[in-house]
């Protein structure tokens, strides 16, 4: 108990020091330096907590060794009758040890039952799955005006995707009201089984743009865009306005799952007025109860920023032109 309590105290103190250090870095050197020092600070407190726990265990161990040695000396100095009485008390200790072994065996059986039960539960809910549309994203090169940039480490740590792209480009000037438009693309893919279904919902326009200083302007609803290569992509169109100036961001977001139930209600896939669906305790329990897990998923987010508002049809045409350039059909392995 002393070791457990001490370890918790050491961890809390070390994390407090880490938080203070990162805040000091942000205040004195700028926010961009935080990413540079974030991992270093994290590994440093891991080492500090480990060393502190070792030191505490060593200190408690020396006290325990001294107490044990004292008991051995006392036992050796006892008369024979006292030693016989001590031997009689060994029976309950043996029973305690046997009980410990049974408890360990029971814990192992429980862990095995949990693994088998979880596998069986999801297997029972995944017998009538339907494969979703298969497509991938291939970015045009710099010759076409596209520029891919590295994804921030903080985004990687949060989303934990298996493959991803982040790119930007400038409009080609057609139609004229898009001559000064800028485009941004985000694409992330999660392989089956390796991540939660929630990660694909964590990087979306209705989450990220308000944090970046954009105000929700209008929810244009979901439209299915059918490309010439046969791929059909339903995308949610939401517009945002810069809090300063007249710039408008037309955002398009689509989430594609490799497999799903054709008639299964999925409220976690629905957006209401551009707001994040509820992923509280009740929603998480519902996902488990209905056997929902990551069977392979990917998201595509395209943002078209114009210095002045444009109509919905113009934004949709620009979005479809972008899809024609980057979306390609793909063959996925059979489940």
Structure description:
The chain has 335 residues and is an alpha+beta fold. The protein has eight helices and eleven strands. A seven-stranded antiparallel beta sheet has the order 3-4-5-10-8-7-6, with helices on both faces. A two-stranded antiparallel sheet has the order 1-9. A hairpin with a 5-residue loop joins β7 and β8. About 1% of the residues have low confidence.
Blueprint (SSEs and pairs):
Blueprint: H1 2-29, H2 32-77, H3 80-88, H4 90-125, E1 130-131, E2 135-137, E3 146-148, H5 153-159, E4 163-170, E5 182-190, H6 205-211, E6 214-226, E7 232-242, E8 248-257, E9 259-260, H7 281-289, E10 297-306, H8 312-326, E11 327-329
Antiparallel strand pairs: 1-9, 2-11, 3-4, 4-5, 5-10, 6-7, 7-8, 8-10
Helix pairs in contact: 1-2
